Amino acid sequence: MWPFSRNLPPAQAADVASPEPPYPSASVNDIIQALPDPALMVDGQGRVLHANALARDVLETDPQGLHLSASIRNPAVLEAVAAAVAGEEAVSVEYELRVPMLRSFLAHVAPLGQGQGALLVLRDLTREQQIERMRADFVANASHELRTPLTALTGFLETILGAARNDEKAQAKFLGLMRSQAERMRRLIDDLLSLSRIEMNEHVRPQGEVDLNQVAAHVCDVLSGMARELGCEVSLSADGPLLVTGSRDELVQVVQNLAENAIKYGSSGKRVDIALRHDDGFAELTVRDHGPGIAAEHIPRLTERFYRVNVQESRSRGGTGLGLAIVKHIVSRHRGRLSIASELGKGSEFSVRIPLKT
User: Fold this and answer.
1) Which value, to the nearest 10 degrees, does the dihedral of the CA atoms of residues 163, 167, 170, 176 take?
2) What share of the chain is helix, strand, coil (3-state, %, to 5)?
3) Separation of alpha carbons 192 and 208, rounded Å
């Protein structure tokens, strides 16, 4: 007898002991939809009977009514489901989904009775693995990249405390250099943290509404001072509002990183052109400079962390070697694509395509 029936009169207690069902029975589909993880139920032939909204979102399709192999092609998962349908014990197997981006799951497969089907629940491990990878990458990258400016700072301090102890002119010079190295370390740490945050959430598509035209106009205003100092003209052209689903702050980072790189490294061409247009369901942003261009062998590696075509030039211009890596991961999070084209002596073109908001 339930605890709350103890103090009721006998007649009422009897009613509680054997009540009519107080609520309508939940359907199997209702139960599947209520689960907190992506879940699918298959019948004895492997056809998907039910799939909750989380599963449809992960698989980016509605698998209901289709054989499970039409949406999940991982042999280990399919074998586990076949075994569960045959009545074997529940098992858990690791499962990776590589499209539209890499995500990791622990697939738990349980039988529903021999020959009756199976329940498949996917526990998303992506964030946990990305956090662990982020920690390891941050330590490795920070320790490597911070060593150079820290060594420089140590050398400047030793000079100020030693040979230049009484030389005010030399001290002023070295203090300026120390400030520059400290600023470089700050930019490096900021970019490393930014990249780590983006990678950690890359599998989660942002949900805001952003007009890329407004983002590009804002970036042009922000960089106008730099462009004037370097004698570079920045032009902006667009063919109407370009609404995309995304994060405004992250898309500002994309446009600003691309435009800033074009101004810094392509200013010898005296012009940077930023163009936006509709293209078959996509918003396309193109940033083109008319500078020295980039040799073909460098292009495939430009989005790697800390890869630089010219290390000394990049550092002298305040680059951290992380800007294009940040761009690549933000574009990936927005389900877009980054492409790079360049020719020596004729400049470079960076294009980003992001699906228009539907």
Assistant:
1) 110
2) 45, 20, 30
3) 24
Residue 235's φ and ψ, nearest 5 degrees, are: -110, 145
> Which residues touch 163 (CB under 8 Å, ≥6 apart)?
170
**Chain Cα centroid distance, residue 256:** 17
Alpha carbons 124 and 199: distance in angstroms, whole number: 15
Give per-residue pLDDT as tens, 162-188.
888 888 888 888 888 888 888 888 888
Backbone angles phi, psi at 298, to 5 degrees: -85, -25
Residues in the chain: 358
Give pLDDT, residue 84.
93
- Short-list 319, 321, 316, CA closest to 177: 316
β strands within the chain, DSSP E: 39-42, 48-51, 91-97, 103-111, 118-124, 209-211, 233-238, 243-245, 271-279, 282-289, 337-343, 347-355
pLDDT for 138 equals: 67
Which residues fall within 8 angstroms of residue 6, CB to CB, at 6 or more apart? Answer: 13
Mean pLDDT throughout 96-107? 81
What's the token pair of residue 121? 């629940």
Gap between the Cα atoms of 77 and 87, Å rounded: 15
Share of the chain above pLDDT 70, in %: 87
For the cut 50, the answer to whether the pLDDT of residue 99 exceeds it is: yes
Question: Is pLDDT larger for residue 24 or for residue 208?
Answer: 208
**Nearest CA to 73 among 85, 61, 88?**
61
Using CA atoms, how far apart are residues 112 and 42, in angstroms rounded to an integer?
9
204 to 101, 126, 288, 345: CA distances (angstroms): 10, 10, 30, 40
Q: Provide the pLDDT confidence category of residue 34 given band limits of 50, 70 and 90.
A: very high
The Cα-based distances of 149 to 74, 156, 181, 319 in angstroms read: 47, 10, 5, 13
Which residue carries 């943290």 as its tokens? 193
Q: Report the distance separating Cα 244 and Cα 101, nearest Å.
A: 19
> Which 3 state secondary structure label does DSSP give 1?
coil
Place of tokens 């698998």: 63
The one-letter code for the residue type at 212 is L
Report residue 293 CA to chain centroid gap.
28
